[in-house]
Each structure stands twice: as structure tokens, then as C-alpha cells.
Amino acid sequence: MNIQQLSQALATRFASQLRSNVVAHGEVTIEVAASDVVSVCAALRDDEELKFEQLIDLCGVDYSEYGCVEWETGETSSTGFSRAVEPDTGARLRFGEAPQCVNTSRPRFASVYHLMSVTHNHRLRVRAYCENDEVPVMPTVIDVWPVANWFEREAFDLFGILYDGHPDLRRIMTDYGFVGHPFRKDFPLIGHVEMIYDEEEKRVVYQPVSIEPRVLVPRVVREDARFDDLADATSAASAAAAVENSDA
Fold this sequence. Notes:
Elements: H1 3-13, E1 18-24, E2 27-32, H2 37-46, E3 54-62, E4 109-117, E5 122-129, E6 137-139, H3 148-159, E7 162-164, E8 193-198, E9 203-208, H4 228-247
Parallel strand pairs: 2-5, 6-7
Antiparallel strand pairs: 1-2, 3-4, 4-5, 8-9
């Protein structure tokens, strides 16, 4: 079964549950409602034609500023983006400023599941959007893939997505007393506080962050074919080598 056949099999199996079914960049991505996540994932695991036994990864995504660019360009300039290190040029939002670009075309938070079928050697991406932007909630899939336990804790810690039914939903990357979720687009890149060792108190203490925020890389969503020629050349070279080896 190739990629197109997999996409068609998914369309047939989940006809009433798929919100989208896209084949791009050699991968299949389907989108389902949050309420259908558990049932769809269980079917993906158990269906003999699909057999996605393994959850490779689960992650959160914050789409609040998706597609918002700081530089209207697809390429860097000959001198680089000096604006990123010059505060008076308005290159990036300064600390404490509100976002100037907010994407309202879709829900803000999504939970993404990367699956693998060991039986059929297929890979699949499943995406589900949280229905509430203020309190993003997604049902847990621990009963489908127990490995989701730590993955869901990570998505909760970094994005603030609550996984309903998780038996031990607590932080896993940051301190238990950490305030906020570092991967949210509205969380400052430099954070709110920093830790230092206080020589007088002889212990580690927290204090307001003292570093100056700056960004050297522009955020640009690129949809181009810059690597297609390289990929074609690599494929042609590999095919030629295979023919040469078979002749030998």
C-alpha cells in the first residue's frame, strides 16, 4: 500500500469522522474532532489494514501566530537581518508588548499524534484541535498507547493542554512551581525569571530576568521548492548506483 492508497483507506474507514485528509511531502495527515480522538486512534491501532501499533510522538502546537511573518520575504538579504539586534528598528516585539498579528482562522491549540505501523511500514500524522482556546482540553489516549503518558505531560507542561483522563498530569520539563507554559506564542522568549546562585544566602534564588531579548532568525512560513532539485539529483544518483551495482 502506497501513500495514496493509505489516504484512500483512511477516507473509507473514517468517512464520517475525518475533517481533512491531506497528502503532502510524502506524508499523510488527517484531522479529527477532539471528541473522536480516542475512537479513531483505537481503530487506527486495531484495524488489520492499518495496524498503527506505535505512537512515536505526541506534541502540542500553538497556531495563534501561524502565518504571521516579521519580514515579508522568502530569502535573507545580502547583509543579513540586522533589524533583529537593533531594538529601535521594530524588528520583533519587545518584552511585554502584545502580539500584533493573531491568527483567528483556526482554533489556537492542537494536539498532534505521530503514528507508525510496524506491520505495514506506514507512518501517519493525526491532528485534533482543542475546542476552547482559553482552557484547551483533549482526551487522553493512554488507554490506546500507554507511552502517551509522558508525551501528554510534556504537551501539558509546554503548551498548557489539559489531557482529560490522564492519571498523573503534572509538569515533566519545568519546575513544579513554574508559572506559565514556555511554548505558547505569548510567553516571552527570555522568560519571566532567572536563577542565580546568591553568594550571601549561599543558595540558588530566583530574580526577574535581566537579559535583553533578541531574535536573529526571522519567522517566515515558506512553501517553495528550493530542495526539489537536490532531492531529484540525489534520487537519480542513487538509482544509477543501484543499476551499476546490479550489473556488477
